Input
Amino acid sequence: MTIRVEDYSFWYGGLRALSRVNLTIAPGEPLVVLGPAGSGKTTLLRCLNRLSERAGDTRQAGRILLDGEDIRDLDPPVLRRRVGMVFALPTPLPLSVYENVAYGPRLAGIGRHELDARVEWSLRAAALWPEVEGRLGEPAGRLSGGQQQRLAIARALAVGPEVLLLDEPTAHLDPLSARRIAELLWDLSRQQAVVMATHDPRPATGPRARVAFLYLGRVVEQGPAAEILARPRDSLTRDFLAGRVG
Amino acid sequence: MAALRLAALSTLLALVLIAIFILAEGLPLILHEGPARFILGRRWAPGDGDYGIGNLLAGTAWVTAGALLIGVPLGLSIAVFLCEVAPPPLAPFLKPAVELLAAIPSVVYGFVGLVTLVPLIRTHLGGPGFSVLACSLVLGVMILPTIASVTYDSLRAVPSAYREGSLALGAARWQTITRVLIPAARPGILAGIILGTGRALGETMAVLMVAGNALRAPTSPLDPVRTLTGNIALEMGYAAGEHRQALFATGVVLFLVIFSVNVVARALVRGPSGAR
Output
């Protein structure tokens, strides 16, 4: 499963948020979209599953292809089952831990007898199972921030997405929880395509990672993380990494 | 601060004074007749000294249930449409229009019901036209703005992260509405329904004009009906002595019914709302 972003631009009303972006996202090579606040990272992720269209007065040019198929030709719910998303602020649905994870599979028509196994598998994959095994019926809002973010990952995984988008998944977490999430993501990225948006270069240093540095809606440069972070070619990237641009 | 406290206390004082007044006027008759005979008695004949409000209570229940049957689904649908479906330029015009329905005097509703609904029901469905159905339709529209407006505000208050979380998991918009938004807004929606119920129970003028005001308990939606409030309004002008006390006693029952509805509403709103 590959996503190709081809010459893609996106506007909110008259404001151009993305400008002729070209990217390729493939399994095994987690992509880290790096950039300061307002650079278009979130918009890019939301364009990949068409949540961006909810903003109302929007316009786009170029194409985003999911295995060669233009995502505009796909029904949004079908697309979003294939391209899952985890948001910056972990906000579980106002349901129990179990129901949060079962929500997506149930919509996808997974039967009750399969559901328990699916929920357990997802919670294990998100490294949350040992902590919630005896609390599945509890309101998800009672979990800690780090647990809620792993729950968000579990519920996204439960749908069986081919691509997982993560928008600043560690931004609101303490350092320990943030590290656990980052490690979990690198593990997950072995099996499936993962795109993570972040303004913090530290989590971008995982193995096999690629980095695309975004600035004012434009991809300034992209390549293997080790290369971009150690020897950025563009002065903007250098300034950002040195903390001179934000 | 003292003035504000006084203003707040004056509300409580008004409530207490009203309660004391109607209790003082109505309670003696209830005690004299016996609460069970007064509330469950089927015969209201002040000339014979019979004061049973059973049929009036049944009439009020029929009319209120009918109004809710019409007003709740319609009010919820309007709120969901305005909040989740209506194109952004449309909602700011439609919501005030719905709220304006609440500003129309009830006598106007009654009049419109009288000249349109009553003949329509008589011609097409039979019966005298003055009926439970006419009352329910008029009241259903009258409680719409309350239910729609409170539900709309509750839906708006649901964090957008719930919407996006649901959509991102592959839910269609209607699935997000039915499985996440409405359950999350449930306390507010219930509050709106209860407020609407209170309005339906207490409405007098519009009901009076289309009810037919027969003293029998209705057995079909096409039967004429008399409600507790309608009865008080109809007879207070000429009632005296025990008859007048009986009308106040009817007021006591109405007061208790509306009070109970509010207590239940508060309990529901505060109670467990799923796993939150």
